[in-house]
Amino acid sequence: MNAQKTIRICIVEDDALILKSLQQMLNSTEGFKVSGAFLSAETALEGFSELLPDVLLLDIDLPGISGIEAIGAFKKLQPDLNIVMLTVHEESELVFSALRQGAVGYLLKGNHSKFLLNGIREVFEGGAPMSPSIARLVIASFKPSKENILSERELEVLQKLSNGTNNRQIADELFVSTNTIKAHIKNIYKKLHVNSRAEAVTKGFKKGLF
């Protein structure tokens, strides 16, 4: 691999042993070069505009400014910077906070070195590397929400509406009056912000309510 394709990397990691280990691993691998290694975001930001790395490996737990807080500061200095969070945290709140702030990858420190190297190559080539468990979190966030915006009885009524059952039939099946069913349907319309049975059923499907 020629010098033009060497990926320049900066690392911000407050554990000196991990920082040294990452430096040694990356510098000893063809195609990678560590252009800066720092124990805090503050020290990294001081001379960052002179480094212009291709990829920044950024820890979350840092003294002073946290990794997530620092994302915006790094992006101001280098808007096209590829920031990959390298951390032990798998909490969804931290994952999505980092991604919202502008990180394009999220890797766990426990991953094998080959996974890290592949992740750096992937982000350098325009991808968004994520550890498998993190990718599952992100994918799960796009699944239809099954939040309980309707009561159990309202869900029953909506399910029967989706089957084309009329008010009298629903009332008979649930052993209640037709006026009670009408009240449930009115509440369903209100909660789903719709005005008809068809709209209620369509929205119910979209929200994954049944």
Describe the secondary structure blueprint for this structure:
Layout (H helix, E strand, L loop, with lengths): L6 E6 L3 H12 L4 E7 L2 H6 L8 E4 L8 H11 L4 E6 L4 H10 L3 E4 L4 H12 L7 H9 L11 H11 L4 H8 L3 H15 L4 H10 L4
Parallel strand pairs: 1-2, 1-3, 3-4, 4-5
Helix pairs in contact: 3-4, 7-9, 7-10, 8-9, 9-10
Core attributes:
210 residues; Rossmann fold; Arc Repressor Mutant, subunit A; 2 domains; 50% helix; 13% strand
Task: Report what the structure shows.
The chain folds into two domains: 3-140, Rossmann fold (3-Layer(aba) Sandwich), CATH 3.40.50; 152-206, Winged helix-like DNA-binding domain superfamily/Winged helix DNA-binding domain (Arc Repressor Mutant, subunit A), CATH 1.10.10.10. The chain contains ten helices and five strands, in the order E-H-E-H-E-H-E-H-E-H-H-H-H-H-H. The protein has helices spanning 16-27, 41-46, 67-77, 92-101, 113-124, 132-140, 152-162, 167-174, 178-192, 197-206, and strands spanning 7-12, 32-38, 55-58, 82-87, 105-108. Helix 7 (152-162) crosses helix 9 (178-192), helix 7 crosses helix 10 (197-206) and helix 9 (178-192) crosses helix 10. The protein is elongated, with a radius of gyration of 26 Å.
